[in-house]
C-alpha cells in the first residue's frame, strides 16, 4: 500500500506540477508583456504631452523648459527639426540619440506618435517619437528615451516573486498530495489488513466506514463479507457439532446393544429386543445420511428440479388420500379444501416430499382427536397452500429458527419422535428452488400454520 500511496502521490504531483507550470508560465508571460506595454505607453504619453506644449508655444524658452524638466527625471528627451537635426537634448542621451534618430523611420508617423526602439533586452534605451505639427506641417519631433535597466530590474523582481511563489506552491502541492494520498490509501490499507485477517480465518473484522463513495461501498462490502463468513463459520461449526452428536448417539446405542446381544447367556426374546433397537437406530442413521446428502446436493447447486405443469388440487388430493389413514389411526381428522383449476409448475416428486414432511410434522406434534387442514387459496399471481394443525405449537423464541438445520423446538422429544432437525431445512430449500417461499405462524399450545407461496402457472 505504501507503493500505491507513492504512485498515486507521484502521479498527482506530475499532473499538478504540469498544470501549475503551464498556468505560471502563461501568467508570467502575460504579466511581463502587460508591464512592458505599460512602460511604452507611459513613455509615449510623456512625449505626447511635451509635443502638445510645444505645439501651443514653440519658442526657445519652451524648448529649454521641456529639456530642463527631463533633466531631473528618469527619462530623457531629444527635440529635432523636421529633417531630423537635433535642436535640444538631455546631455546623457546624445550619443545614443545620434545613432538612433538617423535610422528612425518617422515619415508616416501619426499624430499620436510611435515607438521607435522597443528592444529592451539588448539595447540600453527604449524610445518613442511624437511629431510636432503646426498649421498642417511637421515642425519637428519629440524623442523620449528611457533606460531599459529599469525594465530589466522590474522583470528581475517579477521573476524572483514568481520563483518564490512557485517554490511555495510546489511545497504546498507536495504536502497536499501527501495528505490526500494518505487519506485515500489509509482506508485501502485497513481493507487490506482486514482481508488478510479474513484469509487467516479471523472474521472479527470491524471497519469504520463513512460516506457513500466507492471506497465506503468497498469497505461496507468487506464488512458484510466478514459478517457472512463469521456466520458461515458459526453455522459450519454448529452443523458439524450437530452431525457429530446425531451420529454419536445412535452409534453408541448400536455398539452397546450389539455387545449385549452377542452375549451367549441372554434369552432369545431379550436378544430380539436388542436387535430391534439396533435396527431402529440404523434406520435413524440412514435417514440422517439421506437428508445430509440431499442438503449437500442443494449446497452444490446440483439439486435438480424438473418442473412440469401440475393440477394442484388433483396432486394434493392424492397426497391427502395417502396420508389420511395415518391420521385416522391417531383418531385425528385431516381436512382437504382446494379451489378448482389451479395449475402450478412443480417437480412432483420433490413437492410431494415437502407436503409429506409438513403433514407428518402436523401428525406427530398434534393431539389425538384434533384436526389438521390442508387449504389452497388462489391469488392474482400466486397460489398459497396452508397446512394448519391444533397441536402443541411453537414457542415464539424458536419460531424464527425452525427452518435452520438441526434446529429442534423440543430437544428432549426429538429422539423419541425420530426427527433429524433437517426436515424443515430441506422443505425450505425445495420450495425456494421452485421460486416460492415458506413461512410459519404459531401460538404455543394452540397450533401452527405453515404457508407455502408458489407462483401460478
Automatic annotation (TrEMBL):
InterPro entries, per this entry? BphY/WalK/GraS-like (IPR050351), HAMP_dom (IPR003660), HATPase_C_sf (IPR036890), HATPase_dom (IPR003594), His_kinase_dom (IPR005467), HisK_dim/P_dom (IPR003661), HisK_dim/P_sf (IPR036097), Sig_transdc_His_kin-like_C (IPR004358)
Query: Can you name a GO cellular component term?
Result: plasma membrane
Quote the SMART domains the UniProt record gives.
Answer: HAMP, HATPase_c, HisKA
Its EC number is 2.7.13.3
- Transmembrane ranges, per UniProt, are 162-184
Q: Which CDD domains match?
A: HAMP, HATPase, HisKA
What does the record give as the reaction this protein catalyses? Answer: ATP + protein L-histidine = ADP + protein N-phospho-L-histidine
Its annotated compartments are:
Cell membrane
Membrane-topology annotation of the record: Multi-pass membrane protein
Its EC top class is: transferase
Enumerate the spans annotated as HAMP domain: 182-234
GO biological process assignments: osmosensory signaling via phosphorelay pathway
User: Where in the numbering of this chain does the Histidine kinase domain appear?
Assistant: 242-457
* MF GO annotations: ATP binding; phosphorelay response regulator activity; phosphorelay sensor kinase activity; protein kinase activator activity
Record's keyword terms, sorted:
ATP-binding, Cell membrane, Kinase, Membrane, Nucleotide-binding, Phosphoprotein, Transferase, Transmembrane, Transmembrane helix, Two-component regulatory system
* Pfam entry (one): HATPase_c
Q: What is this protein called?
A: histidine kinase
Q: What is the lineage of its organism?
A: Bacteria, Bacillati, Bacillota, Bacilli, Bacillales
Amino acid at each position: 500500500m505504501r507503493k500505491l500511496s507513492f504512485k498515486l502521490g507521484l502521479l498527482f504531483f506530475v499532473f499538478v506540477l504540469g498544470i501549475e507550470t503551464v498556468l505560471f508560465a502563461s501568467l508570467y508571460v502575460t504579466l511581463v508583456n502587460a508591464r512592458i506595454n505599460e512602460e511604452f505607453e507611459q513613455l509615449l504619453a510623456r512625449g505626447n504631452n511635451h509635443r502638445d506644449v510645444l505645439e501651443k508655444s514653440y519658442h526657445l524658452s519652451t524648448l529649454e523648459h521641456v529639456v530642463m524638466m527631463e533633466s531631473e527625471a528618469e527619462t530623457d528627451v531629444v527635440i529635432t527639426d523636421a529633417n531630423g537635426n537635433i535642436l535640444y537634448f538631455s546631455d546623457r542621451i546624445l550619443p545614443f540619440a545620434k545613432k538612433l534618430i538617423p535610422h528612425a523611420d518617422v515619415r508616416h508617423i501619426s499624430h499620436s506618435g510611435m515607438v521607435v526602439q522597443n528592444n529592451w533586452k539588448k539595447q540600453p534605451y527604449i524610445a518613442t517619437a511624437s511629431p510636432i505639427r503646426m498649421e498642417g506641417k511637421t515642425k519637428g519631433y519629440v524623442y523620449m528615451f528611457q533606460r531599459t535597466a529599469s525594465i530589466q530590474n522590474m522583470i528581475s523582481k517579477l521573476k524572483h516573486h514568481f520563483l518564490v511563489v512557485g517554490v511555495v506552491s510546489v511545497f504546498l502541492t507536495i504536502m497536499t498530495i501527501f495528505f490526500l494520498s494518505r487519506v485515500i490509501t489509509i482506508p485501502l490499507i485497513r481493507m487490506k489488513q482486514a482481508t488478510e485477517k479474513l484469509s487467516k480465518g479471523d472474521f472479527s473484522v470491524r471497519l469504520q466506514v463513512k460516506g457513500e463513495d466507492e471506497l465506503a461501498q468497498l469497505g461496507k462490502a468487506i464488512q458484510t463479507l466478514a459478517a457472512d463468513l463469521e456466520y458461515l463459520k458459526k453455522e459450519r461449526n454448529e452443523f458439524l457439532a450437530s452431525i457429530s452428536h446425531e451420529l454419536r448417539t445412535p452409534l453408541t446405542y448400536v455398539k452397546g446393544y450389539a455387545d449385549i446381544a452377542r452375549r451367549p447367556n441372554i434369552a432369545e426374546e431379550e436378544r430380539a429386543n436388542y436387535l430391534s433397537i439396533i435396527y431402529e437406530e440404523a434406520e435413524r442413521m440412514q435417514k440422517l445420511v439421506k437428508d445430509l446428502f440431499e442438503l449437500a446436493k442443494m449446497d452444490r447447486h446440483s439439486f435438480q428440479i424438473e418442473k412440469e405443469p401440475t393440477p394442484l388440487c388433483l396432486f394434493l388430493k392424492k397426497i391427502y388420500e395417502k396420508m389420511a389413514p395415518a391420521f385416522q389411526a391417531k383418531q385425528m381428522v385431516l381436512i382437504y379444501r382446494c379451489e378448482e383449476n389451479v395449475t402450478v409448475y412443480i417437480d412432483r416428486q420433490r413437492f410431494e416430499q415437502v407436503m409429506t414432511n409438513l403433514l407428518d410434522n402436523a401428525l406427530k406434534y398434534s393431539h389425538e382427536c384434533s384436526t389438521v387442514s390442508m387449504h389452497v387459496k388462489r391469488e392474482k399471481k400466486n397460489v398459497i397452500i396452508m397446512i394448519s394443525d391444533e397441536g402443541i405449537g411453537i414457542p415464539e423464541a424458536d419460531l424464527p429458527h425452525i427452518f435452520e438445520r438441526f434446529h429442534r423446538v423440543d430437544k428432549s422429544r426429538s429422539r423419541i419422535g425420530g426427527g433429524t432437525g433437517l426436515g424443515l431445512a430441506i422443505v425450505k430449500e425445495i420450495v425456494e428452488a421452485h421460486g416460492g417461499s415458506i413461512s410459519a405462524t404459531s401460538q404455543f399450545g394452540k397450533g401452527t400454520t405453515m404457508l407455502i407461496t408458489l407462483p401460478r402457472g
